[in-house]
Sequence to fold (329 residues):
Amino acid sequence: MTDEADVLIISVTKVESRALIQSFEQTTGHKAMPQSIGDRLYFNLGIVNGARVFLTQSEMGSGGLDASLLTVRKGIESLSPTAVIMVGIAFGINNQKQAIGDILVTEQLRLYDLQRVGSQDGQYKIILRGDKPHASAWLINHFKSADLRWDGAKVRFGVVLTGEKLVDNIDFRDQLRSFEPEAIGGEMEGAGLYVACQDKKVDWILIKAICDWADGNKAQDKDLRQQTAAQNAAEFVLYALKFTTIDWQKKRGKGLSSQSRSELTRVMTNQEVVTPALSMARRSLAILEEQAAGYDKLQMPTHLRINLEEKRQEVTELESRFRDREVNG
Fold:
């Protein structure tokens, strides 16, 4: 690998990508040049306070071809980032308490596509069965600390709804809000970000600013609102990276001396590594299979199907390694 990132930023739309490139170029004086790595293009945004930052653009949604799940996974495999930050635009929940341009920082995501649809007392009833994962604790702490000194747009921390639907209907938005009353907004790519980073054990967070209210008026002042939101999100992320120096080598796990790494390698046998990994993989597979049970094969979301297949393969490989170890002593 010729390039390694400390931070990989994921955008989706042109307005998001341009806002990020412009903000970073103005700060670093480094022209963001595209680089072909693997089968994707990445923009090297330069070094910010010691952090090597790259940007790549995803397609809309999480589960489609080249959408966020595959984009993030390929980015991790190509650049080995310490943190992945998704940056862009989102919809707000309450135009009485929020404003266009307010910045939403994910403490938790609420995945709403995985549902149980049934009835109760003769009434149509939906129960969410998707995950509600936490963003990485140290990244939440870092952005909350940066917010203490930030004098730009309002920053709001909380639960962000995520699903494959481009929401522009107030009734549907309010239904989503009834599922998660504490939600501060919603977007479309977070599930793929979470799944890819969780699978690769990479820290992640999602930061997007409000550009509309998902109320049927998305076209109103669309360009200006999206530009404002994208710029606010980009500037806050850049500010947070400049806020204080981070020991990226330590975060990456390279803080051990070569002697310590050698000692760890000597002490940990293959079986000590494989056994807990196999147990964890089996638990993860059981959770995925429970989620998949709510769908037939044609209805199952693409990202869930891919994750299920890969986790089954991982369990099979670990079981094979475990058996080989037992046979060979």
Q: What stands out?
A: Residues 7-251 form a domain with the Rossmann fold fold (CATH 3.40.50.1580). The chain is about 45% helix and 25% strand.
